[in-house]
Design a protein that fits this description.
Strand order of the largest sheet of chain A: 6-7-8-3-9-10
Radius of gyration of chain A: 22 Å
Number of strands of chain A: 14
Structural class of chain B: mainly alpha
Number of domains of chain A: 2
Distance between the termini of chain B: 29 Å
Number of helices of chain A: 11
Helix content of chain B: over 70%
Helix content of chain A: 25-40%
Largest interface: A-B, 38 and 30 residues
Order of helices and strands of chain A: EEEHEEHEHHHEHEHEEHEHEEHEH
Number of strands of chain B: 0
Distance between the termini of chain A: 31 Å
Oligomer: heterodimer
CATH class of the largest domain in chain A: Alpha Beta
Largest sheet of chain B: none
Order of helices and strands of chain B: HHHHHHHHHHHHHHHHHHHHHHHHHH
CATH architecture of the largest domain in chain A: 3-Layer(aba) Sandwich
Structural class of chain A: alpha/beta
Strand content of chain B: under 5%
Shape of chain A: globular
Number of domains of chain B: 3
Radius of gyration of chain B: 23 Å
Largest sheet of chain A: 6 strands, mixed
Number of helices of chain B: 26
CATH superfamily of the largest domain in chain A: P-loop containing nucleotide triphosphate hydrolases
Amino acid sequence: MADPAIKTEKLTKHYGDVKALVDLDLSIEPGEIFGFLGPNGAGKTTMIRTILDLIRPSSGRAWILGLDTHEQSVEIRRHIGYVPGDLALYPSLTGRDTLTYFANLRGGVDWDYVDELAGRLDADLSKKVGDLSSGNRQKVGLIQAFMNRPRVLIMDEPSSGLDPLVQREFQAMMREVAAEGRTVFLSSHTLSEVQRVADRVGIIRHGVLIAVEGVASLRSKAIRTVSLFFEGPVESSVFEAIPGVRDVVVEDHHVTMSFDGQMEMLLKAATERHHLVDIATDEADLEEIFLTYYRDGAG
Amino acid sequence: MLASVLTKTIRDRWLGYVIGGGTLALLLLMGMAVYQDIDISFYNELPDAYRSLVGIPENADIGGLAYGAIYASYGALTLAGLGISAGSAAVAREERFGTLGILLGNPRSRTHIVASKAASMVLLTTLGAGILWGGGLLAPMVLGVDVGGVDVGALVIHMFFNTLFYGFLAMAIGAWTGKTVLASGATVAVMVVSFIAAGLLPLVSGYEDVARAFPWYYFQSGEPIINGVSWADMVVLGAGIAVFAGVALVGVNRRDLRNQAVGVTLIDRLRANPMTRNVFDRLAGSTRVSRVWVKTASEQQGLLVVTAGVMLSMGLLIGPMYSLLDEPLIDLADQFPETMLALFGGGDMSTPEGFYQVETYGLMAPIAVMVATIAIGARALAGEEAAHTMDLLLTNPIRRSVVVLEKAAALVLHGAAVGVGIFIGVALGATLGGLDMSVSNIAATSTLAPLIGILFGALALAVSAATGRIKAAVWIPAGLALVFHVMNALLSINAGIAGWAKLSPFYYYLGSDPLLNGMPWGHAALLVALSAGLIAGSVVLFERRDVRQTG
C-alpha cells in the first residue's frame, strides 16, 4: 500500500504556555481531498506550517509521502504545492515574474500549463502583484501552487477574496487533482466550501483534533438556523414541540431557531394557524457544529 | 491633534533615540577620559580644515575637544539620522503598509495626521537632545573635569534644530512622493554633501560664502560650544523646517495615496516600450528572478545607486578641493604630532593621502558601505518574514542554508559595488586634483572599506537570522559600528592603551595607513574571516529556528 499523503503522529506545538497544537494524529490517503476545518486561531495554520518545516514541532512527528517533514523537507518540497493563509507575494514583480521566480527555484515549469491555469482562473499575469486586488493576487498564489502538478497540494484558506465564479473553477481544479490520484489538503473556516469538494473533514479546535468524519455524516449533523417572519405575533410553544427544533427565540413577529428535522413538519406548523410572510435559512456556522459535537460527547 | 497617532509613533521609535543618545553620552564619557590622560596641546596646531570638519572650536580645552569630537560630528549625524528615519517613514511608510488608509478611515484629515507625525518628531528629537544634554552635563562631573566656558546646552540646541531640519526634509519628500527610500536616500545625500561642504568650503579662499548654501553651515559655523546659541542661524534652520512642514502638508493633501509601494520605474517604462521590450524584459523580468541572490541584489538598487553615487562624487570632489586649499595648511605638515594621525581614523591632513583619509575613508566610506550592506543583511531574512513571503519561498525545494548564503552573496555584491564607486571617485579625484597618489593603494583602501562594511552587514544578517526582527538587525550592528569606530579612534591616541584599539574591527581597516603603505593582507584576511564566520553563524541560526510571520 502506498504511503499516506500526509501522516502525523502526536504532533504538538507549544508557544511558551500556549498549546497551539496538541497530540494531533492524522492520516490522509493519496487521491483524497481532505478538508481541515476550524475557527480562526484553532491551530490550522500552525499544523500546516509545522508539516512544511517552517516551524518545528515541540514533540511528535509528521510525514508527507512517507518522507520525514524535517529530515527530508527539501525532497518533500519537490512534490508539494502550497498556498499560505495570508498570501503575500513580491509587490514589485509582475505575476509572470513571480511564477518565473518560483519556477526557477524548482528547476522549470510547463508554461503551457501555467497559461491554461491563468485562463481558467482569469488571472492577469502582466501586472505587478502590488497593483492587483487581493482576489487577483490570490489567483497568482493558486497558479504557483498548481503549476508544478504537485502530488500533494496544501492550501490554507485558499479561496479568500475569490469571486463565486472563480471559486467554482477552483473547486473543479481541486477535483481534477484528486481524480488524478493526487492529494488536496484544504484548510478552511467555511463549512460550505469544504462540503462541496472534500471527501473527509477534520475538525480542529483549540489545537485539538476533535473529529474526523466523512462529509456525508457531517452533513447529517449540520443543523441550520431558520428564521420565520409572520404577519402577527406568535408564541414559541408552537415550534418547541416539533422534533429537531432547538433554541427557539421569539421577537414579536420574528422567530429564529436551530433546526435539523424535517422541513415539511416545520412549515406545516408555521402555516397552520399563522400567516407566514417570509422564511430564511442559514447554514449552521462552525461554532454550532462544534457545540453539537460537544453536546453529543464526540469531542 | 490625533493623540493616538502621536503616542503610537513615539512608542515605535523612542527606543532608538534612547539607545542613540545613551551611546553617544557614553562615548563622550570615554572621550573625555582619554583626552584627560593625554597632552592635547597638539590640538592647537590642528589645521582649520580638520577642526571645522569635526566641529571642534578654536582654543577649546578638554571639554571643547570632547564635545566637539563626539557630539558635534557623530552626535549631530546620529541624531539627524534618527530624524531622517522618522521623517521618511512618517507618511510614506504608513502608506506603503496600507495603514495610512486605515488611519484616514477615521474622522481625521490628512493634515491632522501630518501634524501628529510632526509633533511626534519634535518630541522624539527633544528626548534625544535631552539625553545628550544630560550626558553632556554628567560626564565632566563624573570625571571631575573642568569644562568652564563650554556651552553644551547651546550645542544641543543647535543639534535639535539641525535634526528637525533633515527630519522634516525627509518627511516633505516622503509626503510629496510616497516613497520611503527616496525620502531617506535623498535627505542623507543632502546631509552628507552639506556636512562636507560646510566643513571645507570656508577654507577655500573665494568660496567662503558658498558654504552658506549648505544647511550644515548653520549648525556649526556659529561654534555654539564657545559662543552660545547662534539664534540667527537657528532662525534659518527654523525657516527651513517650517517650509518643509508646509511642503509635507501640501504634498500629502494634493495627491492620490498609493495603495502599495509599487512605483513605475524607468525599467518598467522600458519594458512597456515595444522598441526596448525584449532586452528589458530579460533584464528586469527573467534575469532578476533567476536566482535568490539576483533578486535580493536587485531589490535595494535605489539605495545602492545613492550610496555608490554619493561616494563616487565625494571622491571626485575631494581631490580638486585639496589642491584648492590654502598653502599654509600644507606647510603645517611637519608640525603634526603623532597622535593626530590616529584620531578619527584620520591622517596627516597636509598630505593628499591624509586628506582623503579624513574626508572620505575615515567616516563616510564605511558609513556608505554599511548603509548598503546593513540594509540587505537586516532585510534579507527578517524582511521576507515581515512581508510574509518567507513561507512561500521556503516551501520551494531549496535549503534554508542556500537562501541565507545567496542573500549573503547579494550583501557582498552591494558592498563591493559601493567599494568600486569609492575607488573610481577617489582615483579620478586624485587625477583631477593633480595629486600624486598610488592607484594601487587607493584600490587597497577601497577594498578594505567594503570589507569593514560587509562585516557589519554580516552581523545584521546574523541578527536577522537569529531573531527575525528587522529593527534589531539594523540597530545592533549600527550601534556596535559606532562604538567600535569611536573606540578605535580614541584608544589609538593614547599610546599607553593603544593596544586595546586592536579589539575594534576598525583598527584593521585604516590602522595600517593603507593609503600610504598599501594592502595589509593580514588585516584584510581577518576582516574576511570575521564576516565568513558571521555568515556561517547565520546559516546555523536560521536553520534552527521557527520562521516568523511578523517583523
